[in-house]
Amino acid sequence: MPLFVAGMFRDRALADRVITALLDAGVPSSEISLAVRERAEEDVSRRGEEEDADNPFAELAVHSAWERLGWQGGARPAYRDRIPPDIELAILAAGPLAIAIGGAQVGAAAGGVPGTMTNFGFTHEMARQWYGRIIEGQAWVMVRTNLDEGDKVRKILDRFQAELRADSLRHW
Questions:
Q1: Across the chain, what does the average pLDDT equal?
Q2: For residue 166, with 0-12 CB atoms within 10 Å meaning exposed, 13-18 middle and 19 or more buried, which class applies?
């Protein structure tokens, strides 16, 4: 039976340390999820600003923003090269969470993050609290493990002072 153990960390750097400790303890990377606010996307929330229109890199920067949001190659509408994505923020997700929510399209579907967290068995209230903290710049880490390995994962998360830590035991 899968056991999901999750918690919040003050920032992405601390979450990176937690993930490194989990990997060092033998947790497979495929079982670790991460959700953080993608600061690289904050600049694309301003639409239609042409202050650097003569700069040859301005168009490339907007084009790259679309690619980071999952609009790859021919799938990106041509007119979008001059207009950045209409988003307020993008969330970077990795691991089982990213697979469940839709991988590269997570930036476009950020409202689905709390719902996806509940699919792992966590309460809506907990998922909303986690999502609020992600928006504020904190990092969420979840590990899919089993009952036998659960204590090892909990100890690592607690050692790095996880906040709002929760467990969910799923029967599927």
A1: 75
A2: buried
- What does the alpha-carbon distance between residue 55 and residue 40 come to, in Å, rounded to a whole number? 19
- Tokens 């923003």 locate to 65
Q: Locate 49 and state its tokens.
A: 């600003």
Query: What confidence tens digit (pLDDT) does each residue in 97-138 have?
Result: 766 655 444 444 444 788 888 888 999 999 999 999 998 989
Helix (H, G, I), strand (E, B) or coil at 131: helix
* Residues 71-106: b if buried by 16+ CB within 10 A, e if exposed: beeeebeeeeeeebbebeebbbbbbbbbebbeeeeb
**Amino acid (1-letter code) at residue 126:** M
pLDDT for residue 112: 76
109 in Cβ contact with 93 (< 8 Å): no
Contacts (Cβ under 8 Å, ≥6 apart) of 140: 6, 7, 8, 9, 15, 33, 34, 35, 36, 130, 133, 134
Q: CA 35, CA 26: separation in Å to the nearest integer?
A: 21
Instruction: State the pLDDT at residue 27.
Output: 95
